[in-house]
């Protein structure tokens, strides 16, 4: 394991295989929280925290509990419990420290528990990295990179949607329809990182 390998994992998960644009995971908060850049940034920071720390804990639980006891088939339940615990910590912290952001995120904050991007990074870690040399460090990098990619996607969409508020969008396309069209066009742009062309 070297720095180039870790950099490749980070760039791969943040840009080339972005969870939102290339794997279409985490679309619920992507559409629901991107009306303002501030709320998108707050959600992105919460997801970075949860993805990174849950990558560490899910690795430890899998390697030190599930594998030794031969109960690896319970990994999804274990991963969801870890993610739910971290989301509760984030929710309590934001409610006490940043109540305005807590109110802005609304229902989407507890939904991080069932955010398929967060569960997706834990599952991809298990499928691709568990059992390889230096797997813990690789899992941390993949979790952090996935969170950065998620935040980047959220900020791009929020910036575009804030500009669309001042654009002359036809009545039938205002709101969610233009957001979905924008998401599709942005996803096509991100597929360019993977070398795909149309």
Summarize the structure.
The chain is built from 8 helices and no strands.
Would you mind describing this structure in some detail?
This protein has helices at 3-16, 27-32, 37-66, 75-97, 99-105, 116-129, 135-164, 176-191. Helix content is 71%, strand content 0%. It contains eight helices and no strands. Helix 3 (37-66) packs antiparallel against helix 4 and helix 4 packs across helix 6 (116-129). With 198 residues, it is mainly α. The relative contact order is 0.20.
DSSP strand content? under 5%
Helix content: over 70%
Radius of gyration: 18 Å
Mean pLDDT: 87
Parts with pLDDT < 50 across at least 5 consecutive residues:
none
Number of helical elements: 8
Please count the beta strands (DSSP E, at least 2 residues each).
Answer: 0
Roughly how many Å apart are the termini? 35 Å
The profile of the biggest β sheet is: none
Protein structure class: mainly alpha
What is the global morphology? globular
Brief descriptors of the model:
single chain; 198 residues; mainly alpha
Helix-strand blueprint:
Blueprint: H1 3-16, H2 27-32, H3 37-66, H4 75-97, H5 99-105, H6 116-129, H7 135-164, H8 176-191
Helix pairs in contact: 1-7, 3-4, 3-6, 3-7, 4-5, 4-6, 6-7
């Amino acid at each position: 394991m070297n720095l180039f390998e870790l950099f490749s994992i980070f760039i791969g998960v943040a840009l080339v295989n972005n969870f939102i644009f290339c794997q279409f995971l985490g679309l619920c908060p992507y559409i629901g929280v991107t009306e303002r850049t501030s709320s998108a940034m707050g959600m992105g920071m919460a997801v970075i925290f949860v993805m990174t720390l849950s990558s560490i804990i899910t690795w430890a639980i899998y390697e030190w509990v599930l594998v030794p006891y031969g109960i690896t088939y319970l990994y999804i339940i274990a991963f969801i419990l870890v993610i739910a615990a971290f989301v509760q910590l984030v929710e309590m912290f934001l409610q006490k420290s940043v109540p305005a952001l807590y109110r802005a995120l609304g229902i989407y904050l507890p939904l991080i528990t069932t955010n398929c991007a967060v569960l997706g990074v834990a599952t991809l870690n298990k499928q691709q990295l568990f059992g390889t040399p230096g797997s813990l460090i690789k899992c941390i990098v993949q979790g952090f990179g996935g969170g950065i990619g998620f935040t980047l996607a959220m900020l791009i969409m929020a910036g575009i949607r804030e500009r669309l508020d001042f654009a002359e969008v036809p009545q039938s396309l205002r709101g969610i329809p233009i957001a979905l069209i924008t998401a599709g066009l942005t996803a096509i742009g991100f597929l360019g990182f993977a070398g795909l062309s149309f």
